[in-house]
């Protein structure tokens, strides 16, 4: 058997191994497991995002409380000043008006800040509840995931003997090939899933190009490694035995 014929068998063995592996990966339980894994990751990311948000809001809340304390102190001081001014006979009505306006502006700032802090605290409370809810959903998803994972493992063990045999077939045939030819095969495979193409009616079955006679004549040697001039696939002229 020529190296090209062995390479054809190698390609068939690889394709069979690939088919078996894809078949196993495509079972309903595998698809379910992948979906549950994705949901678990989304839930984890959501919780992490919420936690980061809470940290930011807590920092904002603490900073706001400090500002509120400072504003209230300032307001109390201005109130004291106003009380003194009201008892001062030399204090004009205009000065009292300006003092009251200043206090009104301070009070507006205090009220606006209080509302902002209330909103911030409400957001933290709401987000904390959202985290608890996500944890609850995550617990169920985790149970479903573990159950699906167990079924997938059972499927893997059931298919293992067949896949292992297919893998050994690939390795056994690979051992019969020259390293250079196998390397060339793998290089072509990066472009074509089937690097070896049979010649049918003087055409490359890979790309369909009609082969020139000088290429066809090369097959008479029986040992030449011939590539299609169009698609660069390795050509196999005759159907392998068996």
What can you tell me about this protein's structure?
This protein has 242 residues and is mainly α. It folds into two domains: 12-174, Helix Hairpins (Orthogonal Bundle), CATH 1.10.287.1490; 179-236, no CATH class. 75% of the residues lie in helices and 4% in strands. The chain is built from five helices and three strands; from the N terminus they run H-H-H-H-E-E-H-E. It has helices at residues 3-25, 28-87, 93-174, 179-189, 213-217, and strands at 196-200, 203-204, 234-236. The protein has a three-stranded mixed sheet with strand order 2-1-3. A hairpin with a 2-residue loop joins strand 1 and strand 2. The radius of gyration is 39 Å and the shape is elongated. The N and C termini lie close together (11 Å). The model has no long low-confidence stretch (mean pLDDT 92).
Detail the topology: elements first, then pairings.
Layout: H1 3-25, H2 28-87, H3 93-174, H4 179-189, E1 196-200, E2 203-204, H5 213-217, E3 234-236
Parallel strand pairs: 1-3
Antiparallel strand pairs: 1-2
Tell how many strands the DSSP assignment holds.
3
Q: Please give the largest β-sheet.
A: 3 strands, mixed
Question: How many helical stretches?
Answer: 5
- How many domains is the backbone divided into? 2
Condensed summary:
By secondary structure, the chain is mostly helical. Helices cover 75% and strands 4% of the residues.
Features:
Helix Hairpins; mainly alpha; 3 strands; 242 residues; 2 domains
């Amino acid at each position: 058997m020529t190296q090209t014929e062995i390479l054809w068998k190698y390609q068939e063995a690889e394709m069979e191994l690939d088919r078996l592996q894809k078949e196993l990966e495509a079972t309903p339980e595998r698809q379910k497991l992948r979906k549950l894994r994705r949901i678990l990751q989304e839930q984890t990311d959501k919780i992490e995002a919420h936690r980061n948000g809470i940290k930011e809001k807590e920092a904002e809340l603490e900073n706001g409380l400090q500002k509120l304390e400072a504003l209230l102190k300032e307001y109390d001081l201005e109130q004291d000043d106003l009380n003194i001014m009201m008892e001062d006979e030399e204090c004009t009505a205009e000065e009292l008006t300006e003092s009251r306006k200043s206090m009104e502006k301070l009070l507006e700032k205090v009220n606006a800040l209080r509302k902002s802090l209330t909103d911030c605290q409400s957001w933290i409370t709401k987000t904390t509840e959202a985290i608890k809810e996500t944890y609850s959903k995550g617990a169920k998803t985790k149970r479903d995931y573990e159950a699906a994972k167990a079924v997938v493992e059972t499927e893997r063990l059931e298919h293992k003997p067949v896949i292992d045999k297919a893998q050994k077939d690939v390795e056994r045939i690979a051992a019969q090939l020259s390293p250079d030819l196998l390397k060339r095969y793998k290089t072509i495979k990066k472009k074509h899933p089937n690097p070896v193409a049979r010649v049918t009616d003087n055409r490359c079955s890979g790309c369909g190009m009609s082969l020139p006679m000088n290429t066809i004549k090369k097959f008479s040697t029986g040992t030449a490694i011939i590539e299609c001039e169009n698609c660069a696939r390795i050509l196999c002229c005759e159907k392998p035995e068996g």
